[in-house]
Amino acid sequence: MSPQPSSTPPSLSRIRIGSAPDSWGVWFPDDSRQVPWQRFLDEVAASGYEWIELGPYGYLPSDPAVLAEETARRGLKVSAGTVFTGLHHGPDVWDETWAHVADIAALTQAMGASHLVVIPSFWRDDKTGDVLEPDTLTAAQWRHLTGLTERLGHEVRERYGLRIVVHPHADTHIDSEENVVRFLDGTDSDLVSLCLDTGHYAYCGGDSVKLIETYGERIGYLHLKQVDPEILAEVRADGTPFGPAVAQGVMCEPPAGVPALEPVLAAAQQLDVDLFAIVEQDMYPCEPDRPLPIAQRTRAFLRSCGA
């Protein structure tokens, strides 16, 4: 008799699953359309997650003692902080950038995390869609971007013991496969790793599994997200900015969208390094009762994948 196929999912022993304020519709430090931070912490813990990100600086308490107490009593730990940078503008923005980064890096370090997610600045406004600057960089701007990102990686590591992971993002200059590869090829792997967001990369036409298999040594962190292919086709055809596209539901609940997360997680496991995989379902703005059941279903789905 031939053996029956096992229904047990593969073990993803090197993958640590978490979620983020983003999955509760939180994009800003303070916004009347967002749930209070206490509710986010209560509900992310109730959904079965152990790890969280800080989200936009100022949303969660910025006092390390307060935040440590609030997370610990809910059984939560912090995996990373997040910063926004516009380093392609060159040395003139360094001091302002560092002032922004330093506070967030200090809180991230105090919470015992080891990663700082770095998101490039948007070339069009994520709320209004207004075009702020050209959507492509000059050769000089690419040199500023790569060189100053390396400097940021060095300074953050030396001063705070954190590793930066740069997040390719829709409506930024690090978005498509072409631009992501150009950025990786132009930066030192010892100083700069990547936060691969599966949804943003698919939104911009990239293949996450291919990127992991090709640039595995540069993948330092994952954001798990899916896009609705039908809505994506519409927003691409219409040239819709990212913020309004999210409001239209372009980022959807897994496993309804693309890319399939099972092969992404399997490829990440094959790297044989410990990786955070943080769920981020962009939902700003959303009704306050919507995130919790989605988060619970998503956590159950990821368990069915072995995570």
How is the biggest beta sheet arranged?
8 strands, parallel, barrel
CATH fold category name: TIM Barrel
- CATH architectural category: Alpha-Beta Barrel
The quaternary state of the protein chains shown equals single chain
Helix content: 25-40%
Assigned CATH class: Alpha Beta
Structural class label: alpha/beta
Low-confidence stretches: 1-5
Tell me the total number of β-strands. Answer: 10
Helical run tally: 11
Which strand-content bin applies to the residues?
15-25%
State the order of secondary-structure elements, H for helix, E for strand: EHEHEHEHEHEHHEEHHEHEH
- The CATH homologous superfamily name equals Divalent-metal-dependent TIM barrel enzymes
Q: What is the straight-line distance between the termini? A: 31 Å
Widest sheet, order of strands: 1-2-3-4-5-6-7-10
Q: What's the pLDDT, averaged over the residues?
A: 95
Shape: globular
Question: Could you say how many structural domains there are in total?
Answer: 1
Radius of gyration: 19 Å
What do these coordinates show?
39% of the residues lie in helices and 15% in strands. The protein is α/β, with parallel strands linked by helices. It has a single domain, classed as Divalent-metal-dependent TIM barrel enzymes (TIM Barrel), CATH 3.20.20.150. It has an 8-stranded parallel beta barrel, surrounded by 5 helices. The radius of gyration is 19 Å and the shape is globular. It starts with 14 loop residues before the first strand and ends with a helix.
